[in-house]
């Protein structure tokens, strides 16, 4: 074999692209195992249990749609739905408005990293710690809030009474999450070119008019993402309720997620709890798809 032939073969071997398939599979394998073990398999298992009667002590007994029929006729379930929707409306409304305001102020007044870290600080506190902190602050006997209000109003305010419990819990969670939401919106504001605002000023548009005609429309994809994330998270509220009120007083804060937990781990009715969880999954999936299409989250007006 001639030297030129050997050199030609070596050249072809060197030009042959190296496949990174095995390396890529090795990198995604741990995440795939976690996805299957902690998400996909529990989902399949939960859907199966929703068609059974199961209490850990006896074998699963297939009951068909009995759990779903019971769910439709369960007054406590529908009360939990109403309470959850009330919480979702308050939480999403306050959180979105405040986050948008904070993000705009950060963009217009300062872009300091220190300010951003201060805004994000409440989000770094766990939900349980935040709930315990505010439970002590708002306590109607020893809380500092009532110690300040009582001399002014003449009486203590029971923030966790039947009428005020859900708004109070919503405000606590808004306090914790608004900084993170504001930073998401702030990132969206950074993507809007200054030339757009300069053109608006040249046309004589006021700051308020540019906010509604330029900022909000161009922020639509980010706002859609924020609304979808906030909606899903709000429907799954649990830890704040569990720490602060345990669903009381008289089911006033028994949100859907807490009712599912109580049925599964308090009364060991895993089949019925799974049916409610599947119902919640379908509702959230439908709401997410509807929000995505109505807000045109996959489109942008910057092109």
UniProtKB/TrEMBL annotation:
Keywords: Cell membrane, Membrane, Transmembrane, Transmembrane helix, Transport. It is found in: Cell membrane. Residues 81-291 form the ABC transmembrane type-1 domain. GO terms for biological process: transmembrane transport. It comes from the Bacteria. Signal peptide: none annotated. Pfam families: BPD_transp_1. It is a multi-pass membrane protein. The chain crosses the membrane at residues 21-41, 77-106, 118-137, 157-175, 218-238, 270-290. Its main location: membrane. GO terms for cellular component: plasma membrane. InterPro entries: ABC_transporter_permease, MetI-like, MetI-like_sf. Belongs to the binding-protein-dependent transport system permease family. PANTHER family: ABC TRANSPORTER PERMEASE PROTEIN, DIACETYLCHITOBIOSE UPTAKE SYSTEM PERMEASE PROTEIN NGCF. This is ABC transporter, permease protein. The lineage of its organism: Bacteria, Bacillati, Actinomycetota, Actinomycetes, Actinomycetales.
């Amino acid at each position: 074999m001639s030297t030129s032939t050997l050199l030609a073969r070596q050249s072809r071997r060197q030009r042959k692209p190296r496949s990174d398939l095995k390396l890529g599979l090795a990198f995604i394998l741990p995440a795939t195992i976690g996805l299957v073990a902690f998400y996909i398999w529990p989902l399949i298992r939960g859907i199966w249990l929703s068609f059974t009667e199961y209490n850990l002590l006896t074998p699963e007994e297939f009951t068909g749609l009995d759990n779903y029929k019971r769910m439709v006729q369960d007054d406590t379930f529908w009360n939990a739905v109403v309470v959850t929707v009330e919480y979702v409306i308050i939480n999403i409304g306050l959180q979105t408005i405040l986050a948008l305001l904070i993000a705009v102020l950060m963009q217009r007044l300062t872009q300091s990293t220190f300010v951003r870290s201060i805004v994000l600080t409440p989000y770094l506190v766990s939900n349980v710690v935040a709930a315990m902190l505010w439970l002590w602050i708002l306590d109607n006997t020893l809380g500092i809030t009532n110690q300040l209000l009582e001399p002014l109003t003449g009486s203590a305010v029971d923030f966790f009474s039947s009428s005020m419990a859900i708004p109070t819990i919503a405000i606590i969670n808004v306090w914790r999450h608004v900084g993170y939401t504001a930073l998401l919106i702030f990132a969206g504001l950074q993507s809007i070119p200054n030339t757009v605002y300069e053109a608006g000023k040249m046309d004589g548009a006021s700051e308020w008019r540019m906010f509604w005609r330029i900022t909000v429309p161009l922020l639509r994809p980010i706002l859609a993402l924020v609304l979808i994330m906030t909606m899903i998270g709000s429907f799954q509220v649990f830890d704040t309720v569990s720490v602060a009120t345990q669903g009381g007083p008289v089911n006033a804060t028994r949100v859907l997620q807490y009712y599912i937990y109580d049925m599964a781990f308090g009364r060991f009715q895993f089949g019925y709890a799974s049916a409610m969880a599947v119902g919640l999954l379908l509702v959230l999936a439908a709401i997410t798809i509807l929000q995505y299409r109505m807000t045109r989250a996959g489109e942008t007006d910057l092109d």
